[in-house]
Design a protein that fits this description.
This protein is α/β, with parallel strands linked by helices. It is built from four helices and seven strands; from the N terminus they run E-E-H-E-H-E-H-E-H-E-E. Helix 1 runs parallel beside helix 2. The protein starts with 13 loop residues before the first strand and ends with a strand.
Length: about 170
C-alpha cells in the first residue's frame, strides 16, 4: 500500500475561472451632481456651465467615473452629457449611474474579451471567494456566457463546489 498523496482536484480535469483576473484595475470614483444644484433641487444652467469650465477635470486622470445625482431632482440629460464630455479626455471610462453600474459595465467589457469557445465541453468551476469586489452581476453574466459551451459549471472552490449546470447528454 502506497502512502503517496494524490491530488484528486488537480487530476479532475476541472478548469477554474477566477473573475478577479478580469477585474479592471484602477480607481473608481463617483461624480455626484447634487452639490451643483441650487438648494439641491434645481440646476441653473449658467452656473452649471461655469462650473464645467472652471473645474479641475485632470483630477480624474486614468480613473473610472460614475456620474450620478443623489438628490431627488430632475436633472436634464444634457447636464450629464456635458460632464461626460468634460471627463472624457481624462477618465478611463465614464458611465451614467452608481458605482455598481460602473462595476457592471467594466466587467461586461472585460467578459466580452473572453473566447468562450475555449471552454467547449469542459468542466468549469467559477471561483467564488476572493479579495476584490467582484459584483454579483459579473457572476451572472459569466454564467450566462459559459452555459452554451460547457459540459458542466460549478461555483466555489474545486475542493468544495456548488453545482450550477450540467449539459444534457444525447
Amino acid at each position: 500500500m502506497s502512502n503517496e498523496i494524490v491530488n484528486k482536484v488537480a487530476s479532475s480535469g476541472l478548469i477554474t475561472i477566477d473573475l478577479e483576473e478580469y477585474y479592471p484595475k484602477g480607481e473608481r470614483v463617483v461624480f455626484d451632481i447634487k452639490p451643483l444644484l441650487f438648494q439641491e433641487l434645481i440646476l441653473k444652467e449658467k452656473d452649471f456651465r461655469e462650473y464645467i469650465k472652471q473645474h479641475d477635470w485632470a483630477q480624474y486622470q486614468n480613473k473610472f467615473v460614475a456620474v450620478t445625482c443623489t438628490a431627488d431632482a430632475i436633472v436634464p440629460t444634457w447636464a450629464y452629457m456635458l460632464i461626460g464630455i468634460a471627463l472624457e479626455p481624462y477618465a478611463k471610462k465614464v458611465v451614467f449611474g452608481t458605482k455598481d453600474t460602473l462595476e457592471a459595465m467594466l466587467f461586461h467589457e472585460a467578459l466580452e474579451q473572453i473566447n468562450f469557445e475555449l471552454y467547449k465541453d469542459q468542466r468549469v468551476v467559477v471561483k467564488g471567494c476572493g479579495n476584490l469586489p467582484v459584483t454579483t452581476h459579473a457572476y451572472v453574466e459569466l454564467a450566462n456566457a459559459l452555459r452554451p459551451y460547457v459540459k458542466s459549471m460549478m461555483y466555489g472552490e474545486p475542493c468544495s463546489t456548488v453545482p450550477l449546470y450540467k449539459a444534457k447528454t444525447t
